[in-house]
Amino acid sequence: MVRLVLSLALLQNAEIRTTVPLVVAPVSVTDREGKPVPGLEEGEFVLHDNGAPRPHRLEVTNQPLSMVIAIQTNRQAGPALAKLSKVGSMVQPLLAGEKGSVAVLTYSDRVQQQLGFTSDTGEVSAAFAALRPDGHGSCMLDAVQAAARMLGDVDAGRRKVLIVIGETRDRSSEAKLADVIEGAVQAGITIYPVSFSVYLTPFTSMGKEKFGDKPDDPPVFQPSGGGGFSIVSILTELARLGSANAAEALAKATGGQKLSFVRLKGLEEVVEKLSGELHNQYLLTFTPAGGEPGYRGIRVLLKKRPELAVRTRPGYWLRP
What we know:
- This protein is of the alpha/beta class.
- It has nine helices and 14 strands.
- The strands form three sheets. The protein has a six-stranded mixed beta sheet, with helices on both faces. The protein has a four-stranded antiparallel beta sheet with strand order 4-11-1-13, with no helix packed on it. A four-stranded antiparallel beta sheet has the order 3-2-12-14, with no helix packed on it.
- A hairpin with a 3-residue loop joins strand 6 and strand 7.
């Protein structure tokens, strides 16, 4: 764990020569029941950049989505794959949307690309229908790294989303959590892990589907006292999570949300919940203030709506 904290801390000083002329912060706002809240205006948001208020704009035009879905396909995942094969037709219209595109990766002992970026509902549905168990590993971090490379090549004007469907722990990757997080944050990717249990899911494979499980509460980073931002607290939290729950660490580092399912109905509810979030987000943009390069924290608040939950990515990298 100590090694991971040190590795993550070193990311602040990585010499990667890129610039960030404009930072985009996708913001999700939900009510007490977890439902998206539409209709908010620019002046209702307060954005803090590295602990200080910063002028921002609310983008009216919704950026199209580029989405990679990475699916665990080892032999233990068979019952979950049977459920996933039934929701493939929902992916393009509900998750990616009219102008969105979807790519599909699978991972077990190795990562394989099953489908390149496409807007064809039939192709996406066919890729899900063709899912079959293969192998014994679970190289989730390798899959996230491969997806980040794919999303890094798409146009800058598109939102980048990665949905990882599998167990919460990585068991056979060569990639390291620190490197994977760095790549995802640099590429501006929001990661949504969707987990299943290889122990519980098989017992729901027969009989009538009755209940969907309740997704986890949205992960939120709390800034340090006085409204400032503590990178140390984030690094420590990610290190604590990473050893036992890499999925939650990835969600927290990128502003996503970890969800889960056991039954088919629960999976369908997850798809609907993700659809509601992705297509009701507010896109706040701002120009970073001058200063030393490094990792900077983002915090977004609502002025007069304390009952609403606000979530965005916790930070970005400012480079020379």
